[in-house]
Amino acid sequence: QKATKHNFGAGPGILPKEVFEEASQAVLNFNNSGLSILEIGHRTKLFQPVMDEAVALAKELMNLDADHEVLFLQGGASTQFYQVPMNLLDEKAVASFTDTGVWATKAIKEAKLFGGVEVVCSSKESNYTYIPKKFDVNPASVYLHLTSNNTIFGTQWQDFTPFYEKNLPLVADMSSDILSRQMDFNKFDLIYAGAQKNIGAAGVTMVVVNKNILGKVSRKLPTMVDYRNHIENGSMLNTPPVFAVYVCMLTLRWLKSKGGVAAIEKENDRKAQLFYDTLDSFPIFKGTTAKEDRSKMNACFVMEDPALEKEFAAICEQEGMVGVKGHRSVGGFRVSMYNALPYESVVALTDVMRNFAISKG
Ligand code: PMP
């Protein structure tokens, strides 16, 4: 087995090497304070600047306007599946959902506990191999929900026009493609993303919320559920996940130093192009999704002859390709190409694919 690893894992995923190095140093001696980042109080002169910088960098990288607040919360994206409807959806009101995969389904299931839910489109009948292009929405919906990238099935919304046209508050789960491509983030009223793919370590979830949509539901909200309390307390209503927020801050700094979202998008395009071009050059491999809906973050494929999958998986392992096994609901392989994955890793993987295909004639 090769010592050098190429990490294509779906999440927690690869982070920049510089971030691993700086975070390790901070565990030993944070900013020359003589203290570890793991032992400092969150309401101290040492940590407050970390939270402030993380928020400022997120706002800058997403070009957010003054109405949009950035929060760092706990409980993963899965907690947002219920926190969002609790804050926005009254029992007698209705919210609209697009159903493009397992995570969208989970968001739908939780929202139903709190109010009316209408599923406006779904690709479930094809095991989520494509993104529905047209759908109508009940104009009385209090919000419209989407999953921008479907981590498990490898599809991604490429065009948000159908959402913008509906003129409803937009809520998006961007867990697996946040900050990977340019978009008008201000057009979304609530964005949530578990950090563990593109923005940092597991244990923290970024929530971007337009404060004007809050405070309209009639239900009583537990303190920790009400986003307004987190805004008021600068994501420090209780002890924040100090280390995870620090790793986010470092990763956002790294992204800025790389040239921000526009620059990383170019790099992500280059990686995805090389990967999919290789995939399409050898009929031994078969992409599992509609070509126009292919995700640039998670690419799913199977082998034309399923009997070869074991052998290919073994070669991947031997060559240091980590995390390429497909999710159980799709099978085959899944290659995640998050922001921090170097282009060279895609070169290495596509070399393995090419050699394998050629060896099978
Ligand atoms: N939404 C999407 C799109 C995801 O990919 C994931 C995790 N893979 C989740 C939600 C759930 O995130 P968490 O584990 O942070 O709750």
CATH superfamily annotation of the largest domain: Type I PLP-dependent aspartate aminotransferase-like (Major domain)
Give the count of structural domains.
2
Helix content: 25-40%
Instruction: State the major sheet.
Output: 7 strands, mixed
Q: What is the CATH architecture annotation of the largest domain?
A: 3-Layer(aba) Sandwich
Main β-sheet, spatial strand arrangement: 2-10-9-8-5-3-4
> Which percent band covers the strand fraction?
15-25%
Low-confidence stretches: none
Shape: globular
Briefly note the CATH topology name of the largest domain: Aspartate Aminotransferase, domain 2
Give the distinct bound molecules. 4'-deoxy-4'-aminopyridoxal-5'-phosphate
User: What's the overall average pLDDT, rounded?
Assistant: 97
SS-based class? alpha/beta
Q: Distance N terminus to C terminus?
A: 25 Å
